[in-house]
Amino acid sequence: MLDINGFNKLLNTSFDNQNMKNSSPHKRTPKSVNACQPKLSAKQESDICLSCGECCKRYWITVLPQEAKVLAKSLRMGEKEFLEEKCVLFVKLFPKSTPGLLTIPTAFFPKRIYELLEKEMVEVPQSFFVVPQIVLKRERGECVLLGAGNKCSAYKTRPEPCRLFPFIAVAGLREQYPFCPLFHKTFKDSSKESRAYYKKVQKYFKSVHAKGFFGAKGVWKHAPQKGSLLLNEKALGEISLGELEDLLSITRKNNKA
Ligand code: SF4
Ligand code: SF4
Fold first, then answer.
1. What is d(CA 138, CA 58) in angstroms, rounded to the nearest whole number?
2. Cα separation, 72 vs 82, whole angstroms
3. What mean pLDDT comes out for the span 100-109?
């Protein structure tokens, strides 16, 4: 069963490019931003967008397996090459008190990871929701795919969070995006598309839980060999792909028991 709190937390999560603070366009609510705002055509929206690229400079963008395939192809790269050169692995830990999908009792964590947690937390919780993600790399403070003139070098195949930004209809979102004039001048209710996207992410979690993250049977056939371990969005240290697989095999065994 999906842990909704952890799931929402993950989906509401992106990273400030400086300090990895929580700040994200990936939020969900059925409410519109402001029903009084005019609905604009795609052409009008495109005229208002300043192409400032700010939305490509602030977030770590999650890539799902199918998106990686399509992106790699559009960039004329092999999938392995794309994942190694353009992506990084994030393994996020969120404290969680009940068993479930991708949930691992702390007692099974390798000593090295437990010690990292101990340094950060007054009391280490009994279990964690463990979320492995592939995200686009950032270089010089911006998405690795942002090109000259603030144009996306893979615009037609850009990942879904980029397509949805900044139009996900979320009450209170205006305050979070003072940098985006397009968002402040337009209204487009993408809550339906957002819900469809969340279902895809949910399916991805379930697959990782059932099959593992990497390898012949895993969700990813290729992946960076090591990544960043994060606790509630804060960087803790490195984690190897082997350590991640060990953790995920524990969650499978634990949930079968
Ligand atoms: S993939 Fe393209 S649209 Fe998305 S953040 Fe990167 S440069 Fe911007
Ligand atoms: S931040 Fe807003 S105005 Fe600037 S490029 Fe992104 S969508 Fe356009």
1. 9
2. 6
3. 90
E strands, 118-248, are 127-136, 138-139, 142-143, 226-231, 234-240
| Count of CA atoms in the C-beta half-sphere (13 A) of 42 | 1
Residue 235 has pLDDT above 50, yes or no: yes
The residue whose CB lies within 8 Å of the most ligand 1 atoms, and thus the one to mutate among 61, 163, 165, is 61
Contact in structure between 131 and 104 (CB atoms under 8 Å): no
Q: In terms of DSSP bridges, do strands 234-240 and 127-136 run parallel, antiparallel, or are they unpaired? A: unpaired
**Phi/psi at 45 (5° precision):** -60, -45
Helix (H, G, I), strand (E, B) or coil at 251: helix
Q: What percent of the chain is predicted at pLDDT more than 90? A: 51
Token output for 109: 């964590």
Sign of the CA dihedral with 169 first, then 175, 180, and 182 last? positive
Ligand 1 nearest atom to the CA of residue 146, by list position? 7
Q: Is the CB of 152 under 6 A from ligand 2?
A: no
Ligand 2 atom nearest 50 alpha carbon: 3
